[in-house]
Amino acid sequence: MLSITTAELNGWMASLIWPLTRILALIASAPLLGSSSIPAQVKLGLAVMLAILIAPTLPTLPLIDPGSGAGFIIVLQQIVIGLAMGFAMRIVFSAVEAAGEIVGLQMGLGFATFFDPQQSGQMQLIGRFFGLFATLVFLAIDGHLQLIALLVQSFAILPIGMVGIPSPTFVTLANWGAEIFMMGLRLALPVLTALLATNLALGVLTRAAPQLNIFAVGFPLTLSIGLLMISLSLPYFTPVLNQMFSDGFALVSALIGADAPAESR
């Protein structure tokens, strides 16, 4: 007769619940994988599949009851690790979308908003376009696969236990937010420079010809020049986004203490 002890049952539960918690936290916070357009059943199924595949490769788990207080602390640590890894890459997409919103505002498209179900709120048209472009680049460099590979690697470098991410790492993550938004501003700088020159020219033209209706001429002119500059600078966005994603993966590697992955081509 098959007999299962309580210790064996707790070990089996821990080998599935603890890695599943980290995986679910990453999927919930990561770009693309955590999109609200993906059904929750698909996310849960993906997380369970990854947990089943990863469970046999895990280092020796601590002999702690998953339902005890120490087991609950381990669950919280896994949530923090997964959220930190996903949030580091989510900031990159937020910076790109912020650059698009700045460009749209300077083009006079601040009113061109629509409801974005992924963000559960209003979003500007240009910002959404920049976000979709960043998503395509992310897929082209297999960013989602690189993120899953780093997740699997994190279980070997940060094994499940009472030791989590060191405190200075969160300071690095906060500083990363400032750096990546500066890169987003640089992404929008060519279009902003052209629009600034256009607005200065319109100001001089209005001063020279006061009878000119600036609202009838200025809006279509800034809109046309903005769209033209976006189309001209769009081919140069790819290497910049590639570098931003590479820096994001390097930060994720630093969070878990791994070597930075090779730069994506």
From TrEMBL:
Gene Ontology terms: biological process: bacterial-type flagellum assembly; protein targeting
Top-rank lineage group of the source organism: Bacteria
Topology within the bilayer: Multi-pass membrane protein
InterPro entries on file: FliR, T3SS_IM_R
GO cellular component: a single term: plasma membrane
Keyword field contains Iron: no
Pfam families, A to Z: Bac_export_1
Annotated compartments: Cell membrane; Bacterial flagellum basal body
Keyword terms, alphabetized: Bacterial flagellum, Cell membrane, Cell projection, Cilium, Flagellum, Membrane, Transmembrane, Transmembrane helix
Chief location of this protein within or outside the cell: membrane
Family according to the record: Belongs to the FliR/MopE/SpaR family.
Stated role: Role in flagellar biosynthesis.
Name of the protein this chain belongs to: Flagellar biosynthetic protein FliR
Native source organism of the sequence: Nitrosomonas mobilis
